Amino acid sequence: MSLYKNLFKQTAIYGLATVLPRMLSFLLVRLYTGILPTAEYGEVSILLSWMVFFNVILSYGMETAFFRFYNSEKDKQNVIATTTISIFWSSIFFLFGALIFRNSLAAWANVDVQYITYSIWILALDALVIVPFSKLRANQRPIMYAVIKIGNVMVNLILNIFFLLFLPKLAASHPNSFIDNLYIEHYEIGYIFVANLLASLLTLIVLSPNYFHLNRKFDKELWKKMMKYGLPILVAGIAFAVNEHFDKILLGYLLPENIAKSEVGAYSACYKLGLFMVLFATAFRLGIEPFFFSHSGNENAPKTYAVITKYFVIMGSLILLSVIVFADVLKFLLLDNKAYWEAMKVVPLIILANFFLGIYNNLSVWYKLTDKTKIGAYISIVGAILTLVLNYVLIPKYSYYGSAIATIAAYGSMMIISYILGNKYYPIPYDMEKIGAYLGLSILFSAISFYGFRENYYVGISLLLAFMYFIYFNEKETLSRILNTKKN
């Protein structure tokens, strides 16, 4: 039981490092949607979607490779040095190469070159902190990890509030001053990226000592092994980026030009209500990934992974139903502008899709532990192909609702494929009867609440309480053991 307590303690801290910044990001979404028209927020969303692709490319699977070899190699400092040097030089080459071609990139993306320049710098700075953050996780320093992550978002939030809310007022009240010269009218999108850039720069400065304490040289042979392990993860990462973000880009291309960015803006804003599931799944993954590798040699590892996955599904099912029951309350907290509410109908699909993704991440332990990351890449490619095909087919007719259907189809397929292949290559004794019951019942209750009795909280809360009792009835023995352990 102490093993699980230690795991959940670390997951809770990583959860704080994930939840608090994302909750602060909630404020940013409310700020943006309150100031920006749907079309301008759509433009920001498209730019950020492209940045996700380059974030994946600039890490090229090295983050997961770092954990794999940090736990398997005796010389851990050698792993740190090799990974750090690799990421450093690839980031520098990207920075200078992208800056040289920034005008061409801006013309191709139909975006102001200034926004492209800011994005290039942000991407390079974020890539340079990949290894320092991974090192904190590998050395089980979740508190330091949390402090720096939260600090980054706090700086970004404060700068956004200053640039978008206070700077215009200060400039108006102090004409011909330094503040007035600092302010640029109708430059809201630019200020969003400037704030992000300054926050990323400060984060790198805080973590920069990691670059001055390398006591090993670049190990070419180790790097080759890490690249062989990591490149399939890069492919999987690109496929994930397609699944998660390419729908916004395709909406911009496939819808009529006069409504495209407005539709993207509304869809992207309501998509954020899936944040609660993303927070849970991400926090769990951050805590669980080092645990999976460090306990892979234990003879009871498969049974442990099965128990962990079951409780992930229990918690995820509860979050799924809770968020969907109260979705129309949460929209008041997140979206200040009613123009964005038109896309609320996609919220249940997006939350469920992210739940499927979280389950897939838990199931994917088999190909990471057996070094079959190529299969993981193939699974992700299948999901990406589904995303692209379904978006192309459904967007012209159903707009962003078609994108939501494509997302849930992609993640659901990946989850099922990973489970089937995992049984073949690394059998784990999942309690499928209970997992299926929790998942199926939460989906049924969510559909009844949102599509049958939306905003009828007598029905919604009753369904939520019934589901909580169902969990208690099935898990009361385990809960009793945990409570007795605490008393003792």
From TrEMBL:
<dbReference type="GO" id="GO:0005886">
    <property type="term" value="C:plasma membrane"/>
</dbReference>
<dbReference type="Pfam" id="PF01943">
    <property type="entry name" value="Polysacc_synt"/>
</dbReference>
<feature type="transmembrane region" description="Helical">
    <location>
        <begin position="435"/>
        <end position="451"/>
    </location>
</feature>
<feature type="transmembrane region" description="Helical">
    <location>
        <begin position="12"/>
        <end position="32"/>
    </location>
</feature>
<feature type="transmembrane region" description="Helical">
    <location>
        <begin position="266"/>
        <end position="288"/>
    </location>
</feature>
<feature type="transmembrane region" description="Helical">
    <location>
        <begin position="400"/>
        <end position="423"/>
    </location>
</feature>
<feature type="transmembrane region" description="Helical">
    <location>
        <begin position="308"/>
        <end position="334"/>
    </location>
</feature>
<feature type="transmembrane region" description="Helical">
    <location>
        <begin position="44"/>
        <end position="67"/>
    </location>
</feature>
<dbReference type="InterPro" id="IPR050833">
    <property type="entry name" value="Poly_Biosynth_Transport"/>
</dbReference>
<protein>
    <submittedName>
        <fullName>Membrane protein involved in the export of O-antigen and teichoic acid</fullName>
    </submittedName>
</protein>
<feature type="transmembrane region" description="Helical">
    <location>
        <begin position="457"/>
        <end position="473"/>
    </location>
</feature>
<feature type="transmembrane region" description="Helical">
    <location>
        <begin position="187"/>
        <end position="208"/>
    </location>
</feature>
<keyword id="KW-0472">Membrane</keyword>
<keyword id="KW-1133">Transmembrane helix</keyword>
<feature type="transmembrane region" description="Helical">
    <location>
        <begin position="375"/>
        <end position="394"/>
    </location>
</feature>
<feature type="transmembrane region" description="Helical">
    <location>
        <begin position="143"/>
        <end position="167"/>
    </location>
</feature>
<feature type="transmembrane region" description="Helical">
    <location>
        <begin position="346"/>
        <end position="363"/>
    </location>
</feature>
<feature type="transmembrane region" description="Helical">
    <location>
        <begin position="113"/>
        <end position="131"/>
    </location>
</feature>
<dbReference type="InterPro" id="IPR002797">
    <property type="entry name" value="Polysacc_synth"/>
</dbReference>
<feature type="transmembrane region" description="Helical">
    <location>
        <begin position="79"/>
        <end position="101"/>
    </location>
</feature>
<feature type="transmembrane region" description="Helical">
    <location>
        <begin position="229"/>
        <end position="246"/>
    </location>
</feature>
<keyword id="KW-1003">Cell membrane</keyword>
<keyword id="KW-0812">Transmembrane</keyword>
